[in-house]
Amino acid sequence: MSDLRDVIIQPLVTEKSMKVMEENNAYTFEVAPDANKVQIKRAVEQIFNVKVEKVNTMNMRGKKRRLGFTEGKRKDWKKAVVRLHEDDSIEIFEGI
After folding, report:
1. Is the pLDDT at 59 greater than 90, yes or no?
2. Which residues face 32 on adjacent strands?
3. Average pLDDT of 35-48?
4. For the chain, what is the radius of gyration of the CA atoms?
5. What are φ and ψ of residue 46, in 5° steps?
6. Taking the domains of the chain in order of start, what are their residue ranges?
C-alpha cells in the first residue's frame, strides 16, 4: 500500500457494530483485502489521530446472487474491528 488512505475503504455502520462501539470502544471498517493488521493500525492512528490497542480482521465471503438463470456473486471483502484506547474516540461515528 503506497498511501495509508488506500488501506481503509469505508467505515461500517450496522446495529452490531454500533453495539460493539458502545461496549468496547471498537470501530469497524471495510479495509483493502491485501492489508495486514500493522498497516490497518498505522492507518487508523495517523488518519484519525487516536491510539489503537488491538486490530481483529476477518475475510468476508461475497454472497451468491441469482436472477432467473443468471448466477453471480458479490465480491469478497475484508473487515477490520479496531479497538481504541479508552480515552480515544472517532468523531465520524458520533453523529450517526
Report:
1. yes
2. none
3. 95
4. 15
5. -80, -35
6. 4-62+74-85
Query: What does the alpha-carbon distance between residue 83 and residue 86 come to, in Å, rounded to a whole number?
Result: 9
What secondary structure letter does DSSP report for 16? H
Could you give the C-alpha distances from 8 to 23, 43, 47, 56, 70, in angstroms and in order? 23, 7, 10, 14, 32
Cell numbers that stand for 74 in this block:
458479490
**2 compared with 9, residue with greater pLDDT:** 9
Distance CA 54, CA 33 (A): 18
Distance of CA 51 to the CA centre of its chain: 16
**pTM of structure:** 0.86
Task: Round to whole Å and give the CA distance between 80 and 59.
Answer: 9
Amino acid, res. 17: S
CA distance 82 to 65: 30
Digit-coded pLDDT (tens) for 17-32? 999 999 999 999 999 9
Going by the DSSP 8-state scheme, the letter that residue 50 receives in this structure is -
Distance (Å, rounded) from C-alpha 34 to C-alpha 85? 25
CATH number of 4-62+74-85: 3.30.70.330
